[in-house]
C-alpha cells in the first residue's frame, strides 16, 4: 500500500467499452439478476475480450496516477449481481419484483429459495488477473451482505437478518480467497444501509463484521446515494441516515459520496477511528473538474480529517460515464492530491 499521504483510489468500476457491452441497454438499469444480453461478444470470446478491456482499465488508472487500482469491475453487469447470483440457494431465472432503491420503480431481483452458500470462487480470477497486470496496490470489491439481502426476495429464511448473515458467510469465504490471491485491500459495497437505516441499525454492523472476519489487509465499506447516471443530484440528500454506526465495524476505511450531494463533512467526526475515502469527483457533472476545484474539495475534507486518514476518490463507481471523461476526472483528482500533498509538505 502507498506510504505517502492522500493516496488516491477508485470506488471500483470503470467504463466498459462500447465494443464489449451494450451501453444503451446498461444505462437503463442497475441489474440484480444476470443481464447476459448486455455483452456484445459470444461466450467463446467473452473472457478474452473482458481480459483485454480489464487491461485497458488498469492502464488508464495507472496513467491517471491512481495509487490503489482495481480491475474496473469490467466482468460485472453490476457491482453486486455477479457474486449474488453465483451462490447456492439463489434462483435468478425466476425473478421476483421489489421496489427499487429510488422508491419509484419495480425491479426484478433473484429469489432466495434455499440455504445461501458459496459454491466456489467467483472473483478469484479477477483478482489473480489484476495482480498479474499491475505493480501498484490492488483493491478488489465485493457486494456487502446487508445490501445483497435487500436486493433479493427472501422466500427461505425466517427473517432478513438471518439472510444477511448467510450472505456474510459467503462473502467472508470469498474475501479470504481474494486475500490469499494478493489483494492489498478489500472493499464491501453497502449502499443500501442508507436506504433502510432502521433495518441497518439492527444488524448491518454485525453482518459486515462477519463478512470481514479474518481479513488482515486493509478493508473498506463503501456507501453512496446511487450512480449519478441513475439517481439525479437534485434528489440526493445532504446527509447520511446511517453513517456513525459504521465506526463500530472492523473495517479500516469508510468510503462516502460527498462531491455531488455537497455533503456536510461535519459528519466525519462520528468516524474518528476510521480512515475516510472521500468522494471528491462529482460523477453527475459531465465536465472534467479543474485541478483547483478538486484540490479545494480535498482541503475541505482536511478540515475534518487529518491528512494521514484521508483517501481521495470518486463519489461512486464510474461505469456509466464516457471513458474520456472518467479518465480526465481521475487525472484531475491525482494532480489535485499531489498539489495538496506538496502544500502540506
TrEMBL record:
Q: Which domain of life is it from?
A: Bacteria
Cofactor section: Zn(2+)
The Cobalamin-independent methionine synthase MetE C-terminal/archaeal domain is annotated at 6-338
Q: Which GO terms describe its molecular function?
A: 5-methyltetrahydropteroyltriglutamate-homocysteine S-methyltransferase activity; zinc ion binding
InterPro entries to which the protein is assigned, alphabetical = Met_Synth_C/arc, UROD/MetE-like_sf
Gene3D superfamilies, per the entry: 3.20.20.210
Which keywords does this chain's UniProt record carry? Answer: Metal-binding, Methyltransferase, Transferase, Zinc
For the keyword DNA damage, the answer is: no
Asked whether the UniProt record includes Oxidoreductase among its keywords, one would answer no
Q: GO biological process annotations for this chain's record?
A: methionine biosynthetic process; methylation
Name the UniProt record assigns to this protein: 5-methyltetrahydropteroyltriglutamate--homocysteine methyltransferase
Amino acid at each position: 500500500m502507498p506510504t505517502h499521504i492522500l493516496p488516491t483510489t477508485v470506488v471500483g468500476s470503470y467504463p466498459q467499452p462500447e465494443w464489449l457491452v451494450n451501453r444503451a441497454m446498461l444505462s437503463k438499469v442497475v441489474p440484480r439478476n444476470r443481464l447476459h444480453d448486455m455483452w456484445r461478444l459470444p461466450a467463446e470470446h467473452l473472457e478474452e475480450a473482458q481480459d483485454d478491456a480489464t487491461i485497458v482499465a488498469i492502464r488508464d488508472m495507472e496513467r491517471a496516477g491512481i495509487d490503489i487500482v482495481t480491475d474496473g469491475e469490467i466482468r460485472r453487469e453490476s457491482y453486486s449481481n455477479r457474486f449474488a447470483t453465483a451462490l447456492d440457494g439463489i434462483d435468478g431465472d425466476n425473478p421476483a419484483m421489489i421496489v427499487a432503491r429510488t422508491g419509484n420503480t419495480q425491479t426484478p431481483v433473484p429469489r432466495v429459495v434455499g440455504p445461501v452458500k458459496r459454491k466456489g470462487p467467483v472473483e478469484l480470477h479477477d483478482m489473480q488477473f489484476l495482480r498479474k497486470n499491475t505493480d501498484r496496490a490492488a483493491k478488489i470489491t465485493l457486494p456487502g451482505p446487508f445490501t445483497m439481502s435487500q436486493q433479493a426476495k427472501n422466500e427461505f429464511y425466517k427473517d432478513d437478518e438471518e439472510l444477511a448473515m448467510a450472505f456474510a458467510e459467503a462473502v467472508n469465504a470469498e474475501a479470504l480467497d481474494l486475500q490469499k490471491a494478493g489483494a492489498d485491500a478489500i472493499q464491501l459495497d453497502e449502499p443500501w444501509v442508507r436506504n433502510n437505516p432502521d433495518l441497518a441499525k439492527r444488524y448491518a454492523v454485525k453482518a459486515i463484521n462477519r463478512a470481514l472476519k479474518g481479513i488482515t489487509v486493509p478493508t473498506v465499506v463503501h456507501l453512496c446515494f446511487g450512480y449519478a447516471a441513475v439517481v439525479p443530484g437534485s434528489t440526493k440528500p445532504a446527509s447520511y441516515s446511517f453513517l456513525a454506526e459504521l465506526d463500530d465495524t472492523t473495517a479500516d476505511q469508510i468510503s462516502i459520496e460527498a462531491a455531488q450531494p455537497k455533503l456536510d463533512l461535519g459528519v466525519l467526526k462520528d468516524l474518528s477511528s476510521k480512515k475516510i475515502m472521500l468522494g471528491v469527483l462529482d460523477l453527475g457533472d459531465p465536465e472534467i473538474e479543474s485541478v483547483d476545484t478538486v484540490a479545494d474539495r480535498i482541503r475541505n475534507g482536511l478540515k475534518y480529517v487529518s491528512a494521514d486518514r484521508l483517501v481521495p476518490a470518486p463519489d461512486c463507481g464510474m461505469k456509466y460515464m464516457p471513458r474520456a471523461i472518467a479518465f480526465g476526472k481521475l487525472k484531475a483528482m491525482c494532480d489535485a492530491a499531489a498539489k495538496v500533498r506538496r502544500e502540506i509538505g
